[in-house]
Amino acid sequence: MRRDYFTVDIQASATDNDDPTIKIVYDGPTGELRKRLTKVDGGTLDGDEIDVTFRRQPESDGVLSLTNRLTGEYVFEATAPTADIDALVSTADAQEDPQFTVRLTDGEGESRTYELRTLLVYDHDGSLLRGQSLIPGGVEL
Q1: Record's InterPro entries (predicted)?
Q2: Environment class of residue 25 by beta-carbon count within 10 Å: exposed (0-12), middle (13-18) or buried (19+)?
Q3: Using one digit for the tens of pLDDT, what is the confidence trace for 61-103?
Q4: Most exposed of 25, 37, 60, 85 (fewest Cβ within 10 Å)?
C-alpha cells in the first residue's frame, strides 16, 4: 500500500482519560487494509500481534510502520513527523504506566484501536535508538 493512502495525526499530550494517540486514516482501495489486518483464522490482529516502529529520515519526517508481530509482514508504512513521535514517546514515558494508543480508521469509517506499550525508534541507518524509544521495563531486545 502506498504511503500517501495514509494520514497520520499524532496527539502527544495525554489527558485524564486518554493516552497519547497516533490517529491514522486510510483512504486507499477498500478492503486492502482489512485484508492485511486479518489473521489466517479470519480474526483481526489485536494489540499483542502488532508492532509499531518509527524510522527517522534525514529530513524532518520519518516512516511509521505497523507490522504483524507473528509473521513479520508489514501491515503498512506512513509518513509521520519526527518531532511528533518524539513528543509522543516523551509523554508516554513520563506516565506511571507508559503506553500509547493507535487508532486506525479505514476508508469506510471502521476503526480499530490498539493500546500499546512499545514503540521502537530507529535512526536512518537502521540502528535502534533506545533512549528515544518506548520500551517497557523487563523487555530485552
Answers
A1: DUF5793
A2: middle
A3: 999 999 999 889 999 999 999 999 999 999 999 998 899 999 9
A4: 60
